[in-house]
Amino acid sequence: MTTAHRRHKDALYEQLARVSKAMASPKRLELLDLLAQAPRTVEQLAVAAELSVANASQHLKLLREARLVESSRRGLHVVCRLADDDVARFLVGMRGLAEARLAELPSAVRRVLGGRHPAEPVDGPELLARVSRGEVIVLDVRPAEEFRAGHVPSARSIPLPELLARLGELPPGVTLVAYCRGPYCVYAADAVELLQRHGYAATRMDQGVPEWRSQGWPIETCEEASP
What we know:
By secondary structure, the chain is an alpha/beta fold. It has 10 helices and 7 strands. The chain folds into 2 domains: 3-83, Arc Repressor Mutant, subunit A (Orthogonal Bundle), CATH 1.10.10; 119-215, Rhodanese-like domain (Oxidized Rhodanese, domain 1), CATH 3.40.250.10.
């Protein structure tokens, strides 16, 4: 290999490494995971990830430099979003690889879920067919702004903090399928426990919106999805 060829090849892999370097931080992965749900301001991301605004801004700067995140100014705030759906698909694929390779990850997931076992995967088209037949109702228990940004078709938005007060909206005798931000989120597990305590037949699926998109299944959005 000539010196020039070696230099060009090193430069090539340096460019590839920009993505892995940008993602080589637990907090930056969490920020990407949050942005896979909906666009957010820097301040909202800082609160959700338990970071200072200055620290969140620095993480987001590195993600922007790697072209994983885009941002725009809206009034006094900077709104961030994933660069495109390919970033969300990459996150889902990376998580699947980690789950297949890292023996420590399943126990870490159970600790996050409070000892509850992960939910079973759901076949999206079959679930939508059951919804159309009136056999199940899908509940999106994430915050309302995440529902507006993208949700499973025909899902009903009842954020977890509102669920108890809105039980009267749910008909008896129909199975309820709750989902939230994906397999590492506790909202759906908490919702199912609450529903079952009040006599509802309820289950949860481990897929969230990024997982649906990665499968090529349809996603619905609402107007005014941005913060």
